[in-house]
Design goal:
By secondary structure, this protein is α/β, with parallel strands linked by helices. It contains 6 helices and 9 strands. It is an enzyme of class 1 (oxidoreductase).
């Protein structure tokens, strides 16, 4: 079953690379008492994710924060090393959270996982964006085609806010 607007996010623990090394971030750490934009990508360094989806959030970071968002996070089924390298290579380190859902447990708990094994990618996250307030989903937009970032784009999120 897919998570829906009004649902509380399931408990999960992510890994994130920081200047001090890897840290664990729980859903409680990230969402308690905050308004957070979360977007997910099928894979770090993949074309649509790197050239289209992520850049929009980095470019619109200040505009999102000005609309009352406390934090922004990208989630991908990759390990924290890959997510850290992606953060560094895109200039996003320290600007938004690059969260490794390394075993897809968060994606599966949300019902937003997909099997891309036929393409050699294994279990991945669907592409989506959601607004979460104090752990509760306030908006959720899932892309029908994982190769597109339209309803889950930063521009679409800004329009919702």
């Amino acid at each position: 079953m897919t998570i829906a607007i009004g649902d509380t996010l399931p408990a999960a623990t992510f890994k994130e690379k920081t200047a001090d090394g890897p840290v664990e971030i729980t859903t409680e750490d990230l969402f308690k008492g905050k308004k957070v934009v979360v977007f997910a990508v099928p894979g770090a360094f993949t074309p649509t994710c790197t050239l289209n989806h992520l850049p929009g959030y980095l470019e619109n970071r200040d505009a999102l924060l000005a609309k009352g968002v406390d934090d922004i996070a990208v989630v991908s089924v990759n390990d924290w090393h890959v997510m850290g390298a992606w953060a560094q290579s895109t200039g996003g380190m320290g600007k938004i959270h690059f969260l490794a859902d390394w075993d897809a447990s968060f994606s599966k708990a949300l019902g937003l996982d997909m099997d891309l094994s036929a393409g050699g990618l294994g279990i991945r996250s669907k592409r989506y964006a959601m607004l979460v307030e104090d752990g509760v989903v306030k908006s959720l937009d899932i892309e029908e085609n994982p190769g597109q970032a339209t309803v889950s784009s930063a521009t679409a999120m800004l329009e919702r806010l």
